[in-house]
Amino acid sequence: MTARVAFSLSIPPSWSEIDLRPLTRDRAIAQIVQDRYSKVPELRPHRAEMVSYLRDTARSAWDIGCRYCGVFLEAADDGIVPGSVTVSILPPAPETGGQPLEDIVSQLTGIEATHNDQYWLRTTTTELTHAGPAARTYGIQPIHLNNRRITAPAVLMNTFVPFPGGVALISAGSPAAEIHEPLLELFDAVTDTFRLHPLPGENQ
């Protein structure tokens, strides 16, 4: 059984938290897009693209049970740079006889890139300032866009934080794979703000 837990995550001022509920998210998305291009006029010509990206992101996050989703929409020379961060609470990793972090790492696989393959994934461990030891995968992987009609490379970072009774998963990603290095640095900084707040009566 997964323990109940509260959490917090800090996002940059230009990002927005997105409402994932199906009955209200389209209105919330329209407001986010309007707010962004009112502050960054260069984004206005890309309104349809921004709406499509946010709808796909919100739909996917809701479908897999995410409890939080933050998004960003930045202007670029040739369009926009969108991205997101989500938080999910998962059941504990199956025990392999080691510590909780070791149990998670044992299930993660790193796929080395080759000269003719644009996709790659690395596995590592990290230490979050407020949440302690965590397992992480990061790299460039295929994602589905436009309601799964298009597959494209994306830069992704998944960070798994074990706690008594469960695992918090912080997932960050962007289809702007061509600038994956600065985006991975950004995702690392945002993920490092994550905090767990166990609720009274839960396992400590």
Write the layout of secondary structure elements.
Blueprint (H helix, E strand, L loop, with lengths): L4 E4 L7 E2 L7 H15 L7 H17 L4 E9 L2 E12 L9 H6 L14 E9 L3 E14 L4 E14 L2 E9 L5 H12 L3 E4 L6
Description of the structure:
With 204 residues, the protein is α+β, with helices and mostly antiparallel strands. It has a single domain (5-198), classed as 3-Layer(aba) Sandwich (Protein Transport Mog1p, Chain A). Helices cover 25% and strands 38% of the residues. The protein has helices at residues 25-39, 47-63, 100-105, 180-191; strands at residues 5-8, 16-17, 68-76, 79-90, 120-128, 132-145, 150-163, 166-174, 195-198. The strands form two sheets. A seven-stranded antiparallel beta sheet has the order 2-3-4-8-7-6-5. Strands 1-9 form a two-stranded antiparallel sheet. The chain is globular. The protein starts with a strand and ends in a 6-residue tail after the last strand. The relative contact order is 0.19. The mean pLDDT is 88.
Please state roughly what percent of the residues sit in beta strands, choosing from under 5%, 5-15%, 15-25%, 25-35%, 35-45% or over 45%.
35-45%
Q: What share of residues is helical?
A: 10-25%
How far apart lie the N and C ends?
15 Å
The tally of beta strands, per DSSP, is 9
- Give the overall silhouette: globular
Number of helices: 4
Order of strands, main sheet, comes to: 2-3-4-8-7-6-5
The low-pLDDT segments are: none
Helix- and strand-based class? alpha+beta
Main sheet record: 7 strands, antiparallel
Rg value: 17 Å
Number of domains: 1
CATH class type? Alpha Beta
Please trace the helix and strand order, writing H or E for each element.
EEHHEEHEEEEHE
**What would you give as the CATH superfamily?**
Mog1/PsbP, alpha/beta/alpha sandwich
- Would you tell me which CATH topology applies? Protein Transport Mog1p, Chain A
